[in-house]
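WARN  no MSA supplied for this record, continuing single-sequence
INFO  ligand: flavin-adenine dinucleotide
INFO  echoing inputs
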Amino acid sequence: MKYDVKLCEIVRRAVIAEDTYDYTVSAPELAVVAEPGQFAHIYVPGKTLRRPISICDIDKAAGTLRFVFQVRGAGTADLAKFEVGDHFDILAPLGHGFSVEPDKKALFVGGGIGVPPLLGAAKHYGENATVAIGFRNKDYVILEEDFKAAGCDTRVATDDGSYGHHGLVIDLIRDVKPDIICACGPMVMLRAVANFAKENGIRCEISLEERMACGIGACLGCAVELNGEEGTYMGHVCKDGPVFAAERVVL
Ligand SMILES: Cc1cc2nc3c(=O)[nH]c(=O)nc-3n(C[C@H](O)[C@H](O)[C@H](O)COP(=O)(O)OP(=O)(O)OC[C@H]3O[C@@H](n4cnc5c(N)ncnc54)[C@H](O)[C@@H]3O)c2cc1C
Ligand code: FES
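INFO  complex generated
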């Protein structure tokens, strides 16, 4: 197992959208082994359970990891109070990430706070990637400029039409003919993307979110129903995922 616990100094902090925080931490030992789509379990002082947050980006040369999260409850609210110079206590890198085959054409589809785990993988594809990301409204749009800076054809949708395409992110992908699709976001979006991939014979990987405790496959806390050769069985999002081949998951 390549994961480890490290105290990582926060070297950059920004508020990038409504309730949404962007942290870069110095973590040379973790950055060297981390892969796009994996996640970290971050300790919140005073709380028993760590909080799972995706690795948004990895800079192996600088030895840093980037995390983008939204405040959802007490744990993420406490994490959002950390300042530059403070340290995150991080267990990482955990789980399986996205396949990265930069010579192929990739389509990345993200919804809301499901967008951050896509950035690291999309950067490997650059101009070979189309990125379709959807948000509630313009106040929640994140990482558009990061995808564009990486050279990706970047398309944005909002539910209320206050920015980009007025409608669903799935509306933005019908003309794209990729070799692989990588998606993360609400289950309804993942189902639509998986169906689109199946109808068009495109390989598809989806990143799932489930409530977690241990984060390393030891507590059975993050069960997910998977398709096996002899019917379905229960797997773990933390250990078997969070990224799965779409056809493996009972959606
Ligand atoms: C693999 C993975 C990657 C994630 N990546 C990101 C990310 O990059 N950015 C981001 O903003 N959020 C991400 N999340 C969701 C994030 O973990 C939750 O929003 C966070 O744990 C909520 O904690 P809280 O204390 O603020 O909320 P509370 O609701 O008070 O949390 C109570 C408990 O429930 C758990 N919990 C609550 N909601 C979730 C959830 N949606 N998923 C998992 N556990 C939950 C908490 O960890 C905690 O143990 C990810 C979740 C998973 C499983
Ligand atoms: S969180 Fe414990 S098994 Fe997945």
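The longest strand covers residues 4-17.
INFO  checksum written, moving to next record
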